[in-house]
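To fix ideas, we now present one chain and its tokenised fold:
***
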Amino acid sequence: MPPYNAPNQRPPPPRNEIVEWFNDIPPVTRAILAASIVIPIAGTFGAVSMSNLLLIWKPVLEKFQLWRLVTCFFLYPIKLEWAFSLAYLYQFSAKLERDYFLGRTADYLYFILVTCAVQVIAAYFASNYVLSSGLSMAITYLWSQKNRGSQISFMFGVRFQAQYLPLVRVLYEFLVDMGRIPMASIIGWGAGYLYNFFVEEYPRAAGVRLLDTPNWLRSLFPHTTRNQGGFANNAGGASNVRVNPGPADQPSNSVFGGHQWGRGQRLG
């Protein structure tokens, strides 16, 4: 019997490469990138007042406007530098999540939460209202430590080892901001350092882990391991699973090879 062909069979819907690319981004990086796009647009076009998104402590403490503790990490001025900052953030966050935190979404989310908490506390004393560059710097610092020794390229082909990238970025922001100290980036650098110290260095020296991903967060985002079908959940004992970090990036890394950072994220 010949095969039956439906006369009105519809062709498959056309592929949307942008949607496919966005869905392929690791989950934590995807959430950070989406917030870094939606929140600045909402503030710029009047959907919400930009002043209600800044980290201002009086309304936080007196009126419990707790969302300010979150929105301050995703504020950018909408200009060409914003696109560069998003590309820069995506580049290093996705690399961290796909390599070092492969299959460990809970651990990467905990890194983001811890470093953001440290920055919020420091911002109370430093009077910082926008911490978007600090979040990006914390991610940059951890990536640079996991890729120590690999060569990266800066502006005009200047090459140096990855561990110096945070310092180069701070110096760059200092110069383009006409001598203004990029305090938010420096605080983010310190937050990334503290996380890396208590997760990597201190346990090796003292044999005690003082900073570990809580079980409630692991239960929400169980560890996964690669198999031939993609990812599979590790049922039971997920908190004991450790996925080996991915290999360091090859010397072809380029900070300005299609991805750049702009000036410090300073409103006004």
About this structure: The beta strands are 151-153, 159-161, 224-227, 230-233, 253-254.
